[in-house]
Design a protein that fits this description.
The chain is α/β, with parallel strands linked by helices. The chain has eleven helices and eight strands. The protein has helices at residues 20-34, 48-58, 84-89, 100-105, 110-122, 135-139, 143-154, 184-202, 204-209, 223-227, 244-253; strands at residues 8-13, 40-46, 63-67, 94-97, 126-131, 166-170, 212-215, 234-237. The protein has an eight-stranded parallel barrel, surrounded by six helices. Strand 1 (8-13), helix 1 (20-34) and strand 2 (40-46) form a beta-alpha-beta unit. Helix 1 (20-34) packs parallel to helix 2, helix 1 (20-34) runs parallel beside helix 11 (244-253) and helix 7 (143-154) packs across helix 8 (184-202). The longest helix is centred in the C-terminal third of the chain and has 19 residues, at 184-202. The protein binds 2-phosphoglycolic acid (PGA). 2-phosphoglycolic acid is lined by residues 13, 171, 176-177, 215-218, 236-240.
Length: 255
C-alpha cells in the first residue's frame, strides 16, 4: 500500500453468510477491535436481507456496510434482482460487482459487470470491481492479458471522474476460498499490471490514485506481507471476514 498516494481499503465479503441477528452480533464484536484504526476504510459487504441490521449496528462507528451485487436496470421485470436506487434508498454506499463467484455460478460476463458498474456509479455508489485469472490462465502464462482485458471491458465507458468511486479488487480465482494465497510478489506484480492498464486508459494520475486491493485467502497471518507491497492497497476478504479477531488483525496490518 502507498497511503501517500491512495486510500487503503480493507473490505469483508460475507458472501451467503450471516442472518440479521448474526450480523448484528458480529458488528458488535468487531467494532471495539477496529475502533480508531483510521489508516484504512473498513467495509463489510453483506447479503441483501442482512444489510439493514448491519448498518444499524455499525451506526456511529468507522465501519461501513455494502452490498454484494446490484442489477443494472433501474427497475422492472428482473425477478430476484435489486437495483442501485433501492440500495441507495436504504443508505448503502458500497457494492461489490463482478465477483468470480457471480461470474462462475451466475453467468456474469464482462458485459454485465460493466453495465452493473455503470448503474451503481450513476446512482452515486462506490464500486468494488472484482477481476482475476483462473488457474489455467495463470499456468498458461496469460494472467497479464486476462486481467488487462477484464480491466478494459469492465471499465468501458466509465469516465476519469467516475474512477474516483471505483476500487479494483484483484482476485486470482485459484486463491479464493482455497487457502492458496498469491505470494506478495505475484499480488504486487498483477496489481501493478492492472494499474498500468488503468493508466493507459485514464492517465497516470488517475491510475496512481486508484485503490487496487488483493483478494484470495487473505488472512491474519499473510496480510502484513501482502499489504507491504506498494501496489497492494488493501484486501477483499472472504473467510477471514467472518471472524472478528482475524478481520481486526488484517485491519491492524494496514495501520
Ligand atoms: P476468501 O474470499 O478470502 O475466502 O478467499 C475472498 C473473496 O472471495 O472475496
Amino acid at each position: 500500500m502507498n497511503p501517500a498516494k491512495r486510500r487503503t481499503v480493507i473490505a469483508g465479503n460475507w458472501k451467503m453468510n450471516f442472518t440479521p441477528a448474526e450480523a448484528k452480533k458480529f458488528i458488535k464484536a468487531v467494532t471495539p477491535l477496529v475502533a480508531g484504526k483510521d489508516n484504512c476504510d473498513i467495509i463489510f459487504c453483506a447479503p441483501y436481507v442482512t444489510i439493514d441490521a448491519a448498518m444499524k449496528a455499525a451506526k456511529g462507528t468507522n465501519i461501513k456496510i455494502g452490498a454484494e451485487n446490484v442489477h443494472f436496470a433501474p427497475k422492472g421485470a428482473y425477478t430476484g434482482e435489486v437495483s442501485a436506487d433501492m440500495l441507495k434508498a436504504i443508505g448503502v454506499e458500497y457494492v461489490i460487482i463482478g465477483h468470480s463467484e457471480r461470474r462462475q455460478y451466475f453467468g456474469e460476463t464482462d458485459e454485465t459487470v460493466n453495465l452493473r458498474t455503470k448503474a451503481a456509479l450513476e446512482a452515486g455508489m462506490k464500486v468494488i470491481l472484482c477481476l482475476g485469472e483462473v488457474k489455467e490462465q495463470r499456468l498458461a502464462g496469460i494472467t497479464d492479458e486476462v486481467v488487462g482485458m477484464q480491466t478494459k471491458l469492465d471499465l468501458a465507458g466509465i469516465t476519469a471522474e467516475q474512477m474516483k468511486n471505483i476500487i479494483i479488487a484483484y482476485e486470482p480465482v485459484w486463491a479464493i476460498g482455497t487457502g492458496l494465497t498469491a505470494t506478495p510478489e505475484q499480488a504486487e506484480e498483477t496489481c501493478a499490471v492492472i494499474r498500468k492498464v488503468v493508466a493507459s486508459i485514464y492517465g497516470k494520475e488517475v491510475a496512481e490514485a486508484t485503490t487496487i486491493q488483493y483478494g484470495g485467502s487473505m488472512n491474519d497471518k499473510n496480510a502484513a506481507e501482502l499489504l507491504k507491497k506498494d501496489d497492494v492497497d488493501g484486501g477483499l476478504i472472504g473467510g477471514a471476514s467472518l471472524v472478528p479477531e482475524k478481520f481486526a488483525a488484517i485491519v491492524d496490518a494496514a495501520q
